[in-house]
Amino acid sequence: MRTFQTLLVTGGAGFIGSNFIRFLFNKTNFAGRIVNFDKLTYAGNPHNLADIARKFGERYVFVQGDIAESEHVKDALTTYQADAVVHFAAESHVDRSIHGPDDFVRTNILGTFTLLQAAREVWADRKDVLFHHVSTDEVYGSLGDTGKFLETTSYDPRSPYSASKASSDHLVNVWFHTFGLPITMSNCSNNYGPYHFPEKLIPLMIGNLLTGKELPVYGDGLNVRDWLYVEDHASAIWAILTKGKVGETYNVGGENEWTNLALVKFLCTRLAEVQGKDPEDYLKLITYVKDRPGHDHRYAIDCSKLKTELGWTQSVSFEQGLEATLKWYLDNQRWVAQITSGAYRDWVAKNYQTR
Fold first, then answer.
1. Is 302 among the catalytic positions?
2. Which one, of 252, 98, 232, lies nearest residue 162 by Cα?
3. Quick check: is 137 catalytic?
4. Among residues of the chain, what percentage have pLDDT more than 90?
């Protein structure tokens, strides 16, 4: 089993990254240091880990930096002598990629290239290090009504977002095969859970329900997604980091396939139960809108390799995870208001160095 002294976690102030850091400190035997390297774009929130910073002191370090800037990355790798990179940092919203693909190309492709080059330069020929790249099932394209994505499934991206992630995946594999950089990679299904930026489907629907706004559903709502609780994703990445075979890719799935419409209806019904209201008061807010261009029909992950080789498994059902997520958002409306406010972004600009 591999051990590490210092992890450089890119995008650690975001949704999945902050949950991964929280998981390592609170639920594993990791005894080293974590350097959270984040640019603090719209979805990065330093408050996500304020309690971790207080509790773990020098074992948690925040560094504001841009993964597409070579000097930023090399400075962090050398200053903190990181022996592993866990690469979450990415532009990740499909709709944003359709309206403005430039940032996706810069961050997801150029940023990953810059990280790989910096790691190769700083680590030289070391083999006691690891570069773990976190990717998505969207690189595989769209499934019909049957079948699942395997690690060997051919890539067929359908959006600027998935194309940029597919490009970054190929770069990571090339740096292993051509340059001998020790890497692992994971491709995950849709994540959900605490600290999810409010523009994403589940927190968006919860927020709209609480404010009586319409619940926009693309097309007929029958697109299928496999949902993975974010803490289960964190545990899978930790299993790959410590036990995964260098050069290998592992698919991470929740094995919870739901249509978008069924998911929205579940949230309507469950929130109504919690609040003692008639579900129809919420169900009538569902509004069908024009379908997203290139909208993939179905995603489904076969994660048997991860389960068989590394002994990983999910800890919660989708219903249990949704219950926990709904409760978190009900209890943390102040966080939602803060991260979506212009005043918060102004505060970040004043209190953190602008690169």
1. no
2. 98
3. yes
4. 84
